[in-house]
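Batch job 17 of 40 flagged for manual review because the log was empty.
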Amino acid sequence: MLSLKEIMFVTHSHQITLRSKLISNWAITLLLGAFICATAGCAQKTTENTNTTEKPAAASEPVVSWADGNLTIDGQTFKLNHAYATLENDPFDENEFTIRVLLSEQPISKDVLDDHTALTEMKKDAKNHALEIDIDQKQKVTWIGVWGLGQVSGMDYPFEPVVFTDRMVEGRLFTAKAESGLDKKWQYDAKFKSSVRADPIKSFVTASTGKPLAADGGEPAKAYLEYQSALRSAKGAGDLDRFYSKPVLKDRNANPELKELALEMEKGSLLEDMKIVGGFVDGDKATLSIEGKQEGEGNLRGKVNLHLEDGQWKIGAQSFRGGN
C-alpha cells in the first residue's frame, strides 16, 4: 500500500508533497499532467499596486482580454494577442492566492478554458503557442509553463504590475535576457490586461460565496461517505466511476493506463478517524471541510468539492494539507 509520504504527485504546475503543498486526489488520477492539482476559492482578497487608481472590475463590466507581446523559441517569434487570468485561492488560507495568467497566440474559448482535458490537449497539439505564468499575492512570479516547451519553474522572472486584484490584472511580463532550457532557447516580453475569473471546477465554496451546510454536511456528505466506503472495497478503477463528476470522470478516462495506479494511490490516501466538520453550498456545488489522520503523517485537513449532477452529488476537486 502506498502512503502519501512515499509518493510525489506531479502536476503541470507544481511538484508537491504533503509536507509542503496541497495534495489533490484529482491530481492523483492525472499523474502525468492531464490536469492540474485542485487549489482555488473565490474569497474576495485584493492586492492593488500603489501606482494605479483603477478600481476592481464590477461583475457587470465587460470581460477584458488582450495582450501585446512576443514569445520567441529558437529564433522563431510568435505574437501573443490574448490574455486569460484565473484566481486560485488557497482553500486553507484566505490571505494566500495565485493568479494564473495565460497569454496565447490564438483565442481560446470559454468552453476549452473550463474543460481541463481539452486545454491539456490544446497544449499537446502545440498549434497555439502560449505562456502560463503564476503570480502570487506578493506579485511574484512563482511558475512558468511554455506551451510546446514545458515547465521552466524555479527561476526568478520579472512582473511589472499596473493593476493586481482578484478581479483584474494588468502589467508586463518579460525575460530580461534569452533563456536556455529543455534543449531550446526562449524569451518573452508582453503587456497584457485581463479580467480574473474563478475556475468553475477547481474553486471551493467558502463563507463569502455560499451558505453553510447542515452540521453533518447534509446530502453532499452522505455522497462523500458512500464514495469513501466504495473506495475501501473497490477492486478496479472502474468501480468508482459512478461517484465522480463529469469533468473528473472525463479526465480519468483520458488516461486509462493510469486508472489502476490512481486507484492504488487513492486507497493509500484514505484517512483514519475521518470526520466532516462543516462546509458550504452554492447552488449545485458544495465544499466539505474534513479532518482526519494519515498513517505516518499525523493530522490532515481537507476540502472536497461535490457537484449536483442529475439529482446526485458527485465528487470533484479534493485538496488536503497536513498540520493543525
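Reviewer: the log was empty due to a logging misconfiguration, but the result itself is present. DSSP finds six helices and 19 strands in the chain. Unflagging and moving on to job 18.
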